[in-house]
Amino acid sequence: MTDPAPSTTVPGDLPISVRRARPGDTHAVLDFARTTWDGWDYIPSVWQEWLEAPDGVVLVATPRAQREIDRFGRPLQPDRPIAIARVAMLSPDEAWLEGLRVDPGVRNRGVARLFHGACLAWARAQGATSVRYATGEDNEGSHRLGLHHGFRLLRPWRSYQPPHPRVDEAEEAETAASATLVGEDEFADLADEATGEVPADVAEQAMAAAAPEAEERTAEAPAGEPGVERAREELEEIEEREEDREELAAVTGEPWAAAGPPSPALSGATATLEQAALEKARRRLRRAGLLLDPGSAPDLRRRWWERVRDDPTFAMGDRLYEFRSWAFQELTEARFAAHVRAGEVLVMEEGSGRRHRRWALAVLPLGEALSADQRPWAALVAGDGAAVLDLAVATGRALARPLRLRIPDGAPLVTGHEDAFIAAGFPPARETLHLLARPLPSDAAVDLGDPGMVVFAEPPRRVTVPPGA
Ligand SMILES: CC(C)(COP(=O)(O)OP(=O)(O)OC[C@H]1O[C@@H](n2cnc3c(N)ncnc32)[C@H](O)[C@@H]1OP(=O)(O)O)[C@@H](O)C(=O)NCCC(=O)NCCS
Fold first, then answer.
1. Smallest CA separation from ligand 1 atom 42, residue
2. Is the full-model pTM beyond 0.90?
3. Which of 196, 344, 355, 388 is the most buried (most CB within 10 A)?
4. Does 403 share its domain with 446?
């Protein structure tokens, strides 16, 4: 056994009891976890799902002190949550901490410090040997917590995403053409990252870059007189729609070709529609020549893995990737092979001759994005900057949806290509996302303050079923 953690309780710290969250906590939790970031928080939209998800455990802290009042003069109630956090297992041995929130009425009283220790104890009980979490670069409280509990700061990551989240290509052309008329609200969706604002000057450059392209597109395809290229695209789209209908009819037994797709709510075919959307996306990527064939020979798969393994951007990013949106885990050769088999790896090679050949690779968790109805994101990009940009642009086109990239800050892949990223419509976010990590051997000391400061209403034990377990 390693030495027990030194006691770190500070006078005034509030002793807590820790247990798993229950449906009956919902009201109390959402009371303080609804408006965290300038009046907004994602917790209400994931709470129910979190309570039920088998891959993680949601913990709450409740006050143990008698007759305490919070800073707003409200009496604390014994079993009413004052803090929440989720311990998610991303793989059998990697834990991810998320959703830490302390009721503003009891902040700065050591609740997060004590609760963080309890979360580590729960992570360890799930079999985690490493723990990570992400926070904004300027979230000092969160950084101090990490420091206190033995976390180290990893390389920060910066996101790059098009300022126009367009779903439909025609709409995209129209919007890009009028982009210069659009105010800053156009970037509102980028605020889905607390840290993801696009600097105004960068956004302006990106819009300016997008506008001429839109004019070109409009000139190429005047209304009512489609060119040959446009006619071919339309034919392909009609064929795809036919294929989708046949696929769906085959699975659901519902011949809805004439009437259009069934309402998911009525037919209960949501999963099938998701599957159909996924297949369609894959087909488009395959047609665009981007998909690394899921049936690739092991030799080819290995060659691509070796490129990733030796890629300096991958090394700089601590060999992590973002398969679940906003959660980072290690990419191993076995996981890479599984992503190839699942049709989630895109590749591109450009130029000829050994010395001039450039390559790019992206892991694209399409199923995840579709089921969460999120904009698609690359879990990982590697290779040469110019080729990665071409791959990202081609992928966005094939999906008719813009892609979000997140790349270790200062990575060779971006260095020297900054202007090209902006010109291609991938301006950098102003702030970075900070990742923190610590190992968690089974005998690791976990700091729970002085005896009695943290009581487990339920002893930490293995309750989660991680993906791939
Ligand atoms: C960040 C947060 C969890 C801290 O909770 P808390 O119970 O007030 O924190 P504690 O009293 O246990 O303090 C923990 C450490 O953070 C520091 N800290 C807390 N709030 C801070 C703030 N606003 N600014 C700077 N430091 C802060 C404390 O000084 C302490 O540092 P120390 O151990 O070096 O003395 C809480 O403010 C919160 O819920 N914020 C909104 C959500 C959030 O930021 N979650 C974190 C990750 S996304």
1. 101
2. no
3. 388
4. no
